[in-house]
Amino acid sequence: MFGFFTPGEAWVSFKIGGLKVTLTRQGILGAALFVMRVTASVSFVVLLSITTKHFELLRVLRMFKMPSVFVMIFGMCYRYIFLLVEIVENTYLAIKSRVGTSVHYQKGQHLTAWNIAHLWLRSYQMNDDVYKAMRSRGYQGEVLVMNEFRTRLRDWLWLCFVFLLSMLVMVFNFHAKI
Amino acid sequence: MKDLVFEAKDIYFSYLGKYPALNGVHIHIERGQKIAIIGANGSGKSTLLHLLDGLIFAQRGTLKAFGEELKESQFNDEEFSRNFRKKVGLVFQNPDIQLFCPTVKEDIVFGPLQLGIPKHDIDERLDRLVHILGIEDLLHRSPHQLSIGEKRKVAIASTLIIDPDVLLLDEPTAGLDPLTTRHIVDLLLEENLSGKTIITSTHDLHIVAEISDLIFVFSQDKKIVRYGPPEAILEDIALLKDHNLVHIHRHRHKDKVHTHPHVHLEHHVPAEHQGEEESPVD
After folding, report:
1. Is B277 in the same domain as B220?
2. Does B40 share its domain with B121?
C-alpha cells in the first residue's frame, strides 16, 4: 500500500512525524486484493463448515490419505471440545450461583486460574479414561475405520462443473486488466 | 468341576500407590451367572470391573480369567489381547468416555473393526442391535447431541456388538427414566438367557433381584463384606443400611402415611416382617 513497499503512481501523500508517507495506486489495489482473497478464503471455510457435517469432512480427510490416527484425533478433539465447554460453563454457573456476578478482579483471576487447572486435570483424567475405553474394545495402537464413502454420478457432475468454472475464472483473470 | 470365568484371590489395588481401591477381594464367577456388585460410592466396584476387563492389574493377589492368570505383559501379545477383548466387554459408567467417535454408527462399529470381525457380520449385528435398542434414528448423529439415556443405549450397543461371553456393566441404569431402565434390564436378561455371563455394578436396588443370581456387597473398607442370593441379601435391611444402600422412605397409602426402608421388596404384603410404621395422614 505504501510507496516504500510498492512503488508506483502516487495517490495520497501525508506526513507522520516529519516523514513523508505516500500511498500508491498499485499498493492500495494490491492490499485490497489481498483482503478480498483472505475474506473469500475464510468465507469458503465457514461456508464449508456450516453446510457439511463434521464427520463427512473427516471422511474426506481419510479419502485424501491423511493417516487415520490424525483423523481420529481431529474427530476426538471435536467430540470432546463440547464436553469441556460444558464443564467450563457449569463451573462458571456454579461460581456465579455462590459468589454473584461481581467479584474483585484479584479473586476473579484466582478463580480463573483454578478453573484452568481444574479443566486441565479433568481433560488429563478423561484422556486416561478414553484410552481405557478404546483398549477395552480392542484398540492396539492402530485405528481401523469403516470406509463407507462412495462417489456417485452427481458428485462427478458437480466436480466437472466446479472444474469448468475454475477454468473460466482463470481464463477471465488472465485476460482481464486491472 | 465348575466352569469359572473369573477367579480372584486376595486382590489388592490402589491408585497412585496411596489410595486403596480394593483391599483383599476374593471372587469366583461361573459361566452364565448373573452377578450384581453393590456398595456405596467409592467402595471399589468400578475398579473391580476395570480389573476384570484387563485395563488395570492387581498389585497383590491373583486374578484368573478363563483359567489363565491375567498379567499386563500378556496384553502385549496381540493375539491374546484380541481373544480376551472378544470374550469380555465392559460398558463404562460414563458413556461420554465410551463414545469418542464422530458419529454413533462409527462408535458402535469401532470395537468389531479393531477386533477383525468380518464386515458382513458387523453389518448384521449392527442391524439387529439398533433394532432391539430402538436407536435407528441416532446412527448418523454425533454422540454429544444425545440424551443420557440414548448415550447409555449406544454405549451398551457398542459393547454388545462385540458379542462377548462376559458382559461387565458399570451402573448401566444410573440416571435413566423407568422405561429406559426396563428396556436395558430386559436386554440384559435376554443376553443372559443366550448364555452370556452378566456382571453388573449398581446401587439401583430396584433391578438387582432381577439381574442377579448372586450379589456381592462391597464395604467402605474396599472389601466384599457379604455375598449370597438376592433374596438373602436384599432382606438384610441392617446390612444394606450399614452400606448406604437403603434409606427410610415415607409415602402414602390411601389415608395412611407409610414408612419403611426403600428397598422395593414386597413390603406391602408382609408388613409385620418389614418393621414398618403406619400413621394417619395429618
Report:
1. no
2. yes
Both ends of chain A: CA-CA distance in Å? 16
CA nearest to B163 within chain A: A137
In a domain, A7, yes or no: yes
Which run of H or of E encompasses B66? none
Residue A174 lies in a domain: no
ipTM given for this complex? 0.83
Question: What pLDDT does residue B214 have?
Answer: 95
Domain containing A5 equals: 1-51
pLDDT(B267) > 80: no
pLDDT in tens, B69-100: 999 999 989 999 999 999 999 999 999 999 98
Contact criterion met (CB below 8 Å) for B65 and B52? yes
Determine, yes or no, domain membership for A166: no
CB contact under 8 A, B85 and A138: yes
B271 and B183 both lie in a single domain:
no
Closest residue in chain B to residue A122, using alpha carbons only: B97
Q: What is the DSSP letter of B137?
A: G
In this predicted structure, what is the pLDDT of residue B281? 43
Q: Which residues contact B231 (CB under 8 A, 6 or more apart)?
A: B209
CB contact under 8 A, A133 and B97: yes
Do B16 and B143 sit in the same domain of this protein? yes
- What is the distance between the alpha carbons of residues B65 and B55, in angstroms, rounded to a whole number? 13
Nearest to B55 among A58, A126, A136 (CB): A136
Instruction: Give the model's pLDDT for residue A36.
Output: 95
Count of the separate structural domains present in chain A: 1
- Residue B137 shares a structural domain with residue B70: yes
Domain CATH number, residue B169: 3.40.50.300
Contact of B215 with B36, CB cutoff 8 Å: yes
Q: What is the per-residue pLDDT across A11-22, written as a single tens digit (0 to 9) for each?
A: 888 888 788 888
* Same domain membership, residue B182 and residue B121: yes
- Domain region containing B260: 250-282
Q: Residue B276 above 70 pLDDT?
A: no
Nearest to B102 among A78, A132, A137 (CB): A78
Quote the CA–CA distance of A15 and A10 in Å, as a whole number. 14
pLDDT interval class at B176 (50, 70, 90): confident
Who's near B2: CB < 8 A, 6+ residues apart?
A: B28, B30
Say how many domains are in chain B. 2
